[in-house]
Write a structure and sequence with these properties.
mainly alpha; 16 helices; 431 residues; globular; Growth Hormone, Chain: A
Length: 431
């Protein structure tokens, strides 16, 4: 029997009506799309317990690194101008802080095991306050050297213990963004120091150090009861050698990057203030731009880690840092220096976020293995910066050539990129 076009259309409409009825009668099981915003960390019901710990860790990075460590750089021209120290002595004091950081990275895990994570974080936040108050006294190079060394030690202990104690409380899919938020404290300290330092210097150097100490004390009080309680003692797990080669290559690249960051951390503000003769205010302004980059860097690195992976994110970061040093090494004007400072600022905490995620990926599955992997990476970073600080301070004391330092920084960053690529290939073979 021949089927007409009218019959075909009627049959189609009947079938369509049945499907619509079935869909209407089916229970609704749709769910809202998952948010990608870092605000989920605070407002999502199951993640609310992580908020106080993330806030406390942010306070520790702002206090130990943002204020106690990186606020020193824009003060170097003022310390030299006030005849507290010579240019060479000021550079060595910056290196003393980095040497203390190496000691803290080596001993931080052991101290946290003996004192407990919560108690060690409280103690070393108070110690950092004491170092800031002590630096308000002009009692000579030896006095400053001891307190700057101790400041670096305390900052490393906080770095080694704070983030690993907090991140396990955060859902895995949000840990990249949570890590970025924790290390925003570095950018807040750098940017705040660049903006506020010129204003406080009108009242003198002691006023600057006392203000930094008071800010650090306030952050210590905010974080005091927000740290998560210590868990039961964990027996040291046997080390896993499966990904050891890739992890060691990551640590080597991290150490080279730390060496490469020294010219920006120790000499950028002084380069503009004294090297170009533009004054302390201009140096502090460029340091504030670097701080703005450091504010953006951690969150951008967290997004990169979640979207394209830590290895690819590190490749882009290293390439941007090389270009930034090229802009500083060759005359590029204020606009070029600003772009370079923004890029270098984003790289300082962004590198930490990406290497933290990479080291945790390559570490053994146990909590102790992850802590030891991060401690190894932090120690490598501290060693690289300590070597860079003393070597480049020695070189600068004899040449006072800022551009030579920036060329060396760019070359070291290029080596980081090469070693990082070897690490990525080794990881691909393992997985």
């Amino acid at each position: 029997m021949r089927v007409t076009a009218r019959q075909k259309w009627t049959s189609f409409l009947k079938k369509r009506s049945k499907k619509l009825l079935l869909l209407r009668s089916a229970p609704v099981t749709t769910r809202a799309p998952e948010s990608k915003s870092f605000l989920v960390l605070f407002f999502k019901k199951e993640l609310l317990p992580s908020w106080p710990g993330v806030c406390a860790a942010l306070c520790s990075t702002l206090h130990g690194l943002g204020l106690a460590r990186f606020a020193y750089t824009p003060l170097v021209p003022a310390l030299v101008a006030a005849h507290w120290f010579t240019a060479g002595e000021a550079a060595y004091l910056g290196a003393a802080n980095i040497a203390g950081y190496l000691g803290g990275a080596l001993l931080g895990t052991a101290l946290a095991r003996e004192l407990g994570v919560r108690r060690s974080l409280r103690v070393f936040m108070l110690v950092t306050c004491a170092t800031l108050f002590a630096c308000s006294l002009d009692w000579g190079f030896g006095w400053y050297f001891v307190w700057r060394l101790l400041s670096g030690f305390a900052a490393a202990v906080m770095m080694v213990t704070a983030a690993p104690s907090v991140l396990p409380l955060v859902a895995v899919r949000h840990r990249g963004l949570a890590g970025g938020l924790i290390f925003v404290g570095i950018g807040l300290g750098i940017a705040g120091a660049g903006v506020v330092t010129p204003l406080l210097l009108r009242a003198g150097l002691p006023c600057v150090w006392l203000s930094l100490g008071a800010a650090g004390l306030a952050l210590t009080l905010v974080a005091w009861n927000a740290w998560p309680p210590d868990g039961p003692p964990v027996r040291r797990a046997a080390s896993s050698e499966r990904h050891g080669a890739a992890l060691l290559l990551v640590c080597q690249a991290y150490a080279l990057s730390a060496f490469a960051q020294v010219p920006a951390i120790l000499f950028l503000a002084d380069f503009v203030a004294r090297g170009l003769g533009q004054g302390i205010a201009a140096g502090a302004s460029l340091w504030a731009i670097l701080g703005a980059g450091a504010l953006v860097g951690p969150m951008a690195a967290g997004v990169l880690a979640d979207r394209i992976g830590e290895a690819a994110g590190l490749r882009w970061l290293w390439a941007a840092q090389i270009l930034a040093y090229l802009l500083l090494a060759w005359p590029a004007g204020m606009a070029g220096r600003s772009v370079a400072a923004l890029s270098l600022g984003a790289g300082i905490p962004g590198l930490v976020v990406l290497v933290l995620g990479r080291s945790q990926r390559l570490a053994s599955s146990s909590a102790d293995g992850r802590r030891r992997a991060w401690s190894l990476a932090t120690t490598a970073y501290a060693a690289g910066q300590a070597c860079g600080a003393y070597a480049l301070s020695f070189l600068f004391a004899r040449t006072e050539d800022y551009r030579l330092l920036f060329i060396i920084g760019g070359a070291a960053m290029g080596l980081s990129l090469i070693v990082g690529e070897f690490s990525r290939r080794k990881e691909e073979l393992l997985f």
